[in-house]
Design a protein that fits this description.
The structure is a single chain. The chain has about 120 residues and is mostly helical. It has one domain. The protein has six helices and no strands. Helix 3 crosses helix 5 and helix 4 packs across helix 6. It is elongated, with a radius of gyration of 15 Å. The mean pLDDT is about 90.
């Protein structure tokens, strides 16, 4: 990890961990949502299941992973629509969103990426 990032906390907060756990529960219950690591690898993208497992454990996330999270959420804002989180039948997009940390994950990823950008600018001075 870059020296400039040593003061940044890359551990996901409790709300992010809980959202990821909920995503894993819903995926298991409904047998859908989120790509397996094999499928995601074939597509050249990150796996929501792998991401959720790491987030749920509270693992330190790599800086590039946090950037991927922010990019995932930015790309998938369009998936949010009325009823997508229906408890009786959540959409695949909703389950995947939770696997990546849900709304708290999006807020956290944006905050961490902003801190990284600030640290990078200071390091260039």
């Amino acid at each position: 990890m870059k020296k400039a990032y040593e003061k940044i906390d890359f551990r996901p907060p409790k709300a992010v961990r809980e959202a990821a756990k909920r995503g894993l529960e819903l995926r298991k219950k409904f047998k859908r949502g989120g790509l397996s690591s094999r499928t995601a690898g074939k597509l050249g993208i990150g796996s929501g299941i792998v991401r959720a497992a790491n987030l749920a454990k509270g693992s330190n996330m790599a800086p590039r992973t946090v950037k991927r999270m922010k990019n995932y959420f930015t790309r998938h804002q369009k998936d949010k629509r009325p009823g997508w989180g229906n408890p009786k039948s959540p959409t695949n997009g909703y389950i995947a969103w939770l696997l990546w940390g849900g709304d708290p994950g999006y807020r956290w990823a944006k905050k961490i990426v902003k801190q990284m950008d600030t640290a990078d600018k200071k390091a260039k001075r």
